[in-house]
Every structure is written in C-alpha cells, then in structure tokens.
Amino acid sequence: MTDNISAKVWDNVPSPFCGIASDDLKIEVSGSGVRVLANGDAVTIPGFEQPVTDTAPRIAGKQVSLDEAVQRAAAILKEARLPVFSGFGTDVNDTRAALALIDKVGGVFDQARAGSGVRNLLVLADSGWIATTLGELKNRVEVLLVFGSDIEAAFPRFFERFVWNKETLFGQDPAKREVIYLGRAPSGDAAVSPDGRRPQVIECAPQHLPELAAALSALARGASLQAETAGGVPVAVLEGVVDRLKRSGYSVVTWVAGQLDFPHADLTVQQVCQAVTVLNKETRAAVLPLGGQDGDRTASQVCAWLTGYPTRVSFARGFPEYDPYLNDTARLLKEGEADALVWVSSFSAAAPPAAEIPAVVIGRSGMRFDKEPEVFIPVGVPGIDHAGHTYRCDTVVAMPLYPLRDCGLTSAASVLAAIERSL
Amino acid sequence: MLIKLTGGTVYDPANGVNGQVRNLFIRDGRIVHSLSGATPDQEYDLRGKVVMAGAIDMHTHIGGGKVTIARNLLPEDHRADPEPRRGLMRAGCGHAAPSTLTTGYRYAEMGYTAGFEPAMLPTNARQAHMEMADVPLMDVGGYVMLGSDDFFLRLLSSGSDQQLINDYVAWTIRSTKAMGIKVVNPGGISAFKFNQRMLDLDEKHAYYGVTPRQILKSLARAVHELGVPHPLHVHGCNLGVPGNVETTLNTISGIEGLPMHLTHIQFHSYGVEGDRKFSSGAARIAEAINANKNITIDVGQILFGQTVTASGDSMLQHAHAGHAHPDKWVCMDIECDAGCGVVPFKYRDKNFVNALQWCIGLETFLLVEDPWRVFLTTDHPNGAPFTSYPHLIRLLMDKSFRNDMLSTINPEAAALSTLGSLDREYSLYEIAIMTRAGAARLLGLTDRGHLGAGAAADITVYTDQADKEKMFTRPAYVFKDGELVVRNGEVVKIVWGNLHTVRPEFDGGIEARLRDYFDRYHTMKLDNFIINDWEIEDDGRSKILVHPCHQGARS
Amino acid sequence: MTALTFTLKSPLKQRLDVSPLVPDVLLGLTGKEIASLPLQYGNRQVAAAELFDIDGSDAESVRISGSPKLDFAGRAMTRGVLTIDGDGGAYLGMHMKGGRLCVSGSAGLYAACELKGGIVEISGNAGDLLGGALPGNKKGMSEGIVIVRGDAGDRVGDHMRRGSILIEGNAGAYLGARMTAGTIAVRGSVGPGAGYAMKRGTLLLYGSPAAIGATFNDCGLHTLGFLPLLLKGYERLDTCFSDPQARRARVRRLAGDLSVQGKGEILLVA
C-alpha cells in the first residue's frame, strides 16, 4: 500500500469487509470521511464509507469516560454466570483480546456468522476435504461448479478477480472456462464469460439440495441409480456434470455456506466434498468454501489456534468446550441462559440482537440500537483506524490491514484488555 | 537482576563442559563470567542438579495453517485432553495438535526454550508468525517452503542464472521473516496439482520438465551461497514409500557435497526386503551419514499411539490417506505456492509396519556416530506429540528399558530389527548436543544452546534421576532469558519469546520482477505479501532477532 | 428404602450438569457428601443441596426432578436406575454403559449420545441427534436400547454403530444419517432424507416416510427371515414393536445410501 500524503489517497488498500480480501482498492480520506475511489463494490463501499458519528462511550445512553465504561463492563462480567460474547466482525488482535477476557470470566465465544461456518466446520471435523485457494482457482480452474449458491450476491468481485482474469500461469485462456450452477441460478451476469457464454444453470427447489448433493456424490462414485430424477433434476443431466468434472484437469467446487440456510446443511456440504474427494482418484478437483465476511474466518482461525476449537466455545467450566448447537448466541438469549451479552463488532455497524440482559457493545461508530445497551464503547475499524489482520475465505491468506486515518477511536482490543485488567 | 546458580553439574557441549561442577552467573538475562563482586539478587543451590542450556526443538509443527487445520480436524482429541485455566496459565487443550498457549506451557515444563516451525508456506507465513506469537515461553522461528512454488519452478525450468534464484530465495526469507529454507517433496507438491501421483528424484515434473534432483541442487546452492547458516532443510521424495531408502541415498550423493539437512529421515529409510516387502534401511542411511560430513539429519521418531500427521507434502499425504485413523483427512493446494496434507494416524505397537518404523528411528539414532549431526525429533506431531520426548530420551539412554519395550512390539518386526543388538546408550553430554548445542550450531544461533558468557540465559536444571523419562519430564528450574519461568515442572511466570530470523542480501532487481508476477498471477499485492516488523513487534511481546549470514564466505 | 430423590428448589436459569447424580457416584456417599457434591451450573460450581432438596436413601434408584436445562443426566452410568421426573436436557445418557434411565417427559439434544449400553426410555419426545456422535467423533451409539414413546427430532442415530432405537411416534429429517450399523424402528411418520449417507444398518419404517432419496434403489417386496427374530428381541421391552402381528409383515426393501456406496437398508412395512 502506498501513501499519497498531499491528496490523502491510498492505493492498494486491503478490504477487511469482502471475504476475498481484495487489496487493490483506492481510498480517499479527508478528516474522518472515507471514500472508495476505485475497485469498490456493493460490500466494500458501505464498509469503508460508514461515517463516524459517535466517538464517546455511553452508559445507558449517557456519555461517560472510557474508564467509566470499562469499569461498568467489568462489573457486569464479574457478576455474570454465563456471559456470551458474539459479533466478532473484527480482526485477529481484537479476537485474541476477547478470548483472553472470555477465558477469565468463564464466558461463551460465538460469532455472528458461526451458524454458517459450522456447516463447513462440522464436515471438516467429520471427514475432511480436498480444498484449494483463490490463487489456485485463478490460475488453474477449468470447470467451476457452484453448488446451491449465488456467489455474486455475497462476493461481487469473485468472478472478475479469480475466474475471468486476463492470464494464467499455465497458458490457459481464462475466457474459455466453464461455469456450472447446480441447484441455484445466479442473480446477475458476473458468471457470464468475457466472450458472452452464459453458465450452465441446473436449478432445483432449495429443499432438494440435500438430495441433489447425494446424487452427485453417488454418481461421482460410479453408482447406478434407479431413479430418473434427483431433487427434480434428471439424473442424466447430473451424469453430464460429473462427466464434465471427470474430464477436467482441475475443477473447483464452491458454495456459500451462509446461503445453504437449512437445518443440518453440513450433511449436504459433506456430500459435495466427498464427491470431490472421489474425483481425485482419477483427476484433480478441489473444494473452495466461500465465506470470510464480517470476520467469520478470522474468528474461527484465531479461536482454533487459541482453544483448539473453531468457534462456539464455552469457558464456563474453566477450559474450552466446543458445542456448535448449545453455544449459539441466539439460543442462549432465547432460553435466558446468558445473563450478559458482549457484542464486539468493529467492521459492521449492524446492531446486536436485542436482549433483556445487560449488554456491552464494543462496536463500530455509527451503530444504531433499538434498545440502548447498558454500555456502548465506539471503536475504530482495523484497516481504517488502526492496523490489523483479517482472514479471507480460504483461511490461507491473512491480509495485513493498515491505518488510513486518525479520528481518535481506540481499538476493540485495547478496550477488551482494559476490561480484563479491571476485573 | 543478578542471579547465581551455584554448584550444578553442567553439560555444555558447545564449550566442552561435560559434567563438571560449575557456578553460573546471570546478569540481565545473559550469562556472564562473574558478577564482578556484586551480590546476586537471587541464588539457586544446584548441588546435585544437572544443568543444561534450554532445549531447542529444531523441527516441530507448532504454527501455521496446517496445524490449525489439524486442530479443526480433531475436536475429539482435544476433548480428551482439556487444559483448564490454572494459576498463570490460560485454558486450552493438548495432545496431538495442542492450542498455542498449551504448546508453550508444555514445552517449557519440559525445559524447552525454543522451537522452529519447519514448514512455513510463503503465503501462509503471516499466520505461522501470528500463531507462534501466541506460543508463550519459547523462542520461535520458521523455515519457509520453496521448491513447489511456481515462481521458482519457472526460474529453474527457464534456465535462470543461479544468482537470480539466490535473489529470489533471499527475498523470500526476508519477506517472510524466516530462519532458513525448507523443501518438501521437491516439485512434487506442484506436480500433484498436475495430477502426478509420484515424483522420484530423477522424474520430470509434467509441466516444468525439471526434476527433484535439480530443485534440490539449486536450492541447496542458493542457501549455501547466501550464507544462510541453516543448510537447506529437506523433506525428500517418496515419504513413507517402501524402498525410499534408495531415493534418500541418491539424494545424499546427488547434493554433491553441499550442506543439506534431511529431516524426519526415519520416514525416508524404508527398504523392500523380506516377505512383507518392508524393511529397515537405517544401517545404510547411517553409513551414508557417517561418511558424508555435509549431511545432518533429524530422526522423526514414531512413538505408539494416536497422533496426526501434518505435512506440506500434499501428494504423499493424499496417497497415504487411506491409512487415516480416524477416517478423515484434509489435503490442500495452496496459492501456486505449496500445499498441505493433514492425516490423523494411530501408530500401533502390534502392527508390523509401525513397529518396524519405531525400530528404524531408534536404529538411526544409535548408528549415526556424530551426535552433532543428528537431532532429536518426532517431527511433532507426525511421529508423536512433542510431549513424548522424555520417553524417547529414556529409550536412547537406557538400553535395558529399550529392550524391554522392544520385547512388547510386533515380534516379526522386532526379529527383523538389529535394535536389540545395539548396545549404545546416549550420555547426558550427547543428549545435550542433540537437543541444545548441535541444534543451535545447525541454525546459526550463536547465543543459544550453550552456557558460555554472552549466551542468553535460557537454562534448564534437572534433578538427576535413574529414570531419565522422569528426569526430563519435570525440570527443577527453567530460565528463559534469565527469568525463572518453571519450577518443579510448573510454570511460575509467563514471558514471551523472540523470533529468530536471518536477512540474507539480494539484488533489488528481483523485486520488480516479483511485483509484476504478483500483479499478474497472485491474489494479493506484493507489498501486502511482505511481512513487516510491526506485525511481529508492535504488541510488545516478541522481539525480532536477526542472525548473521556469511554471504560470499562460502561461494 | 425410597429412591434418592433430588427436587429442584427453583427453576434453572443456566444449564446444569447433573452427571454426578448417578448410582455409580452416589452409592457409598453420606448424606452430607451428597449435599456438598459440586455441580457445574453456568460458570460456577454449586453444591447439590443449594439447588436441590434431597430426600430418600436408595442410591441404586435415583430420581431427579426435571428441567429442559438438566444436562448430562446419567452420563457414563453403569448400574441402577435413574429417573427424571419431567423433562431432561441435552446429552441425556451420554456414554451410559448400563442400568436404566427413564424420562417421564421429553429429552433435549443428543439424548443417548454415544450410548454404550443399558436402556434409555423417553416417555415424551426426543430432540435432534438422538443416539448420535459428538462433532468429530465417528461413532455414535454403539450398544444398548433407546425407546421414545413420543416423537424424535432430526438426525436420529447419526453415525450409529450398533444397538436399537425404537420410536413409537414420528421421526424428523435425516433419520439414520451416516449410520454404520444398528436398527432404528419408527412407528409413525418419518421426515425427509431418511438414511442419508448411511453405510449399513436398518431403518424399519411402519408409517409413511417422506419420499426416499434418489440414492436408494428399490429392491422390491420381501418376507425377510431376520425380521421376526429382530422383532422378537424387542418383545420384553413393552413397545408397539412387541406386537407379534408385526413380525409377519412383508416389507419393501430399499438399499443405499449409494452416495457412500452404502449397504444399508430402509424397510418399509407393507
């Protein structure tokens, strides 16, 4: 990243918002205002341009000093018998600081998007997978199979950056790549190739995705099915898909776990992954689970190395315990088990879930609440206000984030550390 | 702070001290000749105790993507070994792929004060550093992986000048804050992406047309010419494949006298003799190592039980995935840079192959004559978790214990092994060489691994016991940079270690070439790839220590 | 002697781990020791007597007043009887090896999780993942019998290895998902995805299932010799599957799940 001081324009800025960690943004900063001048999209532009409104902490809506807010938060946590910490649209250091505090107060660590991530993580822990990364995709993919997902709705620049790139390392013409949408149609034209070819789209009703995945997996293994259709899709069409993947030297199968929003979707994801594993007996293929927005991969990575488990970890017993079902914030709030909520969100200004219990919000400036939390401490954004690191979807690349402005906002990590010291 | 350690029996091979009673003096974290008449702030009576430098694990997978994949793969392993918050120590979990905090506590409790991550992928180096930064009480460092990355393979296959390759190697070491270069299944990780399933030493990569032999020579030469103290760290071809002893012997001869470190050589020492077409190649390997002074090895001993194998070798991990226990595993192709494979595994003492692997590792330890050129590793966690080191030390130091264990393993394997006839028992001095002095020398750590004046006061004090496993499990004291961090095997203070690096010189011209390459083919900008000092040091915990290279002195 | 009875003094706020309240632990303890048994409640440990009124003396027969937040009831028990008067929470009967665990109400998530023996009887409904394996584990229930008088949730018998689950009511989606052996019988209706990714084992369905997936092949109607023997084994259990009439049934046999090269079977009772 380079700094053009006179104009306060920054080049090659990494985005902490988009999940694919685009790092070619051009950003203009004047005062506390931020504008994306180039390479922004529907996710990154609002992410960067969210205005700074509050800079002072509040207790029950009343402006207080940072120290008073920290003391109040510590008092809440000292009393709590099951404080739940969630949100975690934030960077590595904030997550580290939170886990230190959670360990000390015997709380639960969850992440706002963990429900989606768990669909993948349960598969990883049950059978594993053969995976790939964005760089391999960009240089190698011949056939891209998108399962049950509309990529561009969540990752507007995915195709531009990694599929329709201009050149590849191995002399392949990216424009000749094939894209197959299985189970869901794309919402736009991002998957249309530069020469105007539209992706093959094989749609089915959402409730049939599990059956479709199972059929794909069975056909990849060479099973012969009596059924003529699977999830409403002719088996012959699915056989064509499997055949195309088998003939490809390097295919990539991807999905957006957040969009496979039905109970026990991990079973479906597992079938997709196992189909890919089987393909590797003869040729090469790999999965690429998309995600990484709002810190979801960052949270699961940091939590995994610090606790051994990816997310939804409770320290109530004094050591980390993983429970992807019971340690779900929404459930803990609904059942009245959590007696304090700490919401940490430096990327997104979206409000935390309304709760009847004392809430401490360490959040992005500009956050609006239906119900004012007991404590609100506005903090800066890693990648705008201070340095940091964020993981992109493939969990391989942790992108450095740089400070672009200084409007006096502290970091969530320093707030969390101060609370820990005040206990 | 002045500390006196009084009357301990000192084993300090770097300074030729073999079991002499000595006083040691520490001033502000460093060992000094004397306190110049000053009264020590603290004095420890070490009469009857054994004193060594803090132990150094020169090959242990403690940080980076594949370790965290292993963590995510094995929640059941973690559930069985919870580590509650106690005293100064935060909660975590242990066994095969422990959480970072627990890793540091448990290493320190065994008297280790440094560990080196041997498979840091360039594009994942940032993660490796972030994880290692969360390993308390230990110094850390990493060897960055090259040899299957497309930039290097393009240089090599296009016949680039060695100088250009040297520049790229130096740039990579500096940009990723590494201590050395690792090569894993040379070219094979890339070949697997082109659907090759094996790549022997002289087999051509399907796309680039280069062979592992060429890759090894080019990288070994680069490391040598750059003056990087640690020789090329080689995980060779054909890991785990019966008959790979021939490949390994050819690798040794093929390097033509250049310094080379062959890692976890146990996994590369398999013959094909006998009814089961699986036999020990340890004797031939040891003979070659004894004869070739340019070669160093670490063993990668296996010990029986459940563990997880985490490797950059996606090709062979995929090939061996059928042996996964439990039946789940991960392989990854990574960023036109490298790959990884994570396969849980249970070594069984009654299984012929596993029992023979156990013998092969121990035979290697006992047949390699020079303890300065063989290092004590289990390739944590691949052969066994690092917590089994005290057991391994006892196997090496105690022949009757070793033979007792030998009598319990698969009898067919035991009968085929020469282990029972090997009388050698390692001495404390030799253990101190393998786990301290030799490791420091191999890595170019001039102020670690010894107890001479000027050394960092990383010191471990053991209570001498006949049962060496017990002795090495719970040191009486461990000092890290002069701070008492462990007493009687319990952590009493948390400090954070340093990051060891080297910074070889390179011609800046390589960067322009790389910048263009990143812009065209990579998914991040070159400037965002390079790891900055602030990323390591800004939180005030770790310091970057830079060790000198001796460029030009060797070419 | 009357059953050793634990009656909750007030409704639970957080989840409570009652795993120590089993005959194996309680036998031989004095009243005082029992009263002071530490129980994990939220992030605190609380003495049993603070939460429960404790009466009775027969520790071979333990009763606990129910709550849907009462977790790990009967964990790893090997003997005696544990009765939950009312509802149980999650992980009821987890790792249980012997004895009998009865719930007069309903059980939550993961009842009979990785059960290794004994009998678990749930008079009401069971939550999801009945008899299943914890995340990462490949082995769910491996022995023993589970009876559900009411309905069971989704994913009954996930990774099940052996033993029997008898459901007198309905079952949810993904019945027998990823099971590798054992038998699950359902009297009522069954949700979608029955047998999803099952490798071996038997689903015996009396009610009409939602459509069976495309990865099961129809092997036609049969009179299977082993079925009467299987059902005879359930005779003493006093369930609807004990009816001698049921043993003569003809079944339609579906084989799968072909997505995992499975050799499991779904038997639809004609």
Itemize the secondary structure elements and their pairings.
The complex is a heterotrimer of chains A (423), B (555) and C (270).
Chain A lengths: L1 E3 L4 E5 L11 E6 L2 E6 L5 H6 L8 E2 L2 E2 L2 H14 L3 E7 L2 H14 L2 E2 L4 H13 L1 E4 L2 H7 L2 E5 L3 H4 L3 H5 L15 E6 L16 E4 L5 H12 L8 E2 L2 E2 H13 L2 E7 L8 H15 L4 E7 L5 H12 L5 E2 L6 E2 L6 H6 L5 E6 L13 E6 L10 E5 L8 E4 L6 E4 L10 H11 L1
Parallel strand pairs in A: 7-8, 7-19, 10-11, 10-15, 11-12, 15-16, 19-20, 20-21
Antiparallel strand pairs in A: 1-2, 2-3, 3-4, 5-6, 5-21, 8-17, 13-14, 17-18, 22-23
Helix pairs in contact in A: 2-13, 3-11, 3-13, 4-10, 8-9, 8-10
Chain B lengths: L1 E11 L4 E11 L2 E3 L9 E4 L3 E5 L1 E3 L7 H9 L1 H5 L2 E2 L8 E2 L6 H10 L2 E9 L4 H9 L5 E7 L4 H8 L4 H15 L3 E5 L3 H6 L18 H14 L6 E4 L8 H11 L5 E3 L7 E2 L7 E2 L1 H10 L3 E4 L6 E7 L2 H6 L9 E6 L3 E10 L4 H16 L6 E2 L13 H9 L1 H8 L4 H6 L11 H16 L15 E5 L4 H6 L3 E4 L2 E5 L2 E2 L7 E4 L6 H13 L4 H4 L3 H5 L6 E4 L8
Parallel strand pairs in B: 1-4, 1-5, 6-9, 9-10, 10-11, 11-12, 12-13, 13-16, 16-20, 25-26
Antiparallel strand pairs in B: 1-2, 2-3, 5-21, 7-8, 14-15, 17-19, 18-19, 21-22, 22-23, 23-24
Chain C lengths: L2 E6 L7 E2 L5 H4 L4 H5 L2 E4 L2 E4 H4 E4 L2 E8 L4 E2 L9 E5 L14 E4 L15 E4 L22 E4 L15 E4 L15 E4 L15 E4 L11 E6 L3 H7 L18 E6 L7 E6 L1
Parallel strand pairs in C: 1-6, 2-7, 6-8, 8-9, 9-10, 10-11, 11-12, 12-13, 13-14, 14-17
Antiparallel strand pairs in C: 1-5, 3-4, 15-16, 16-17
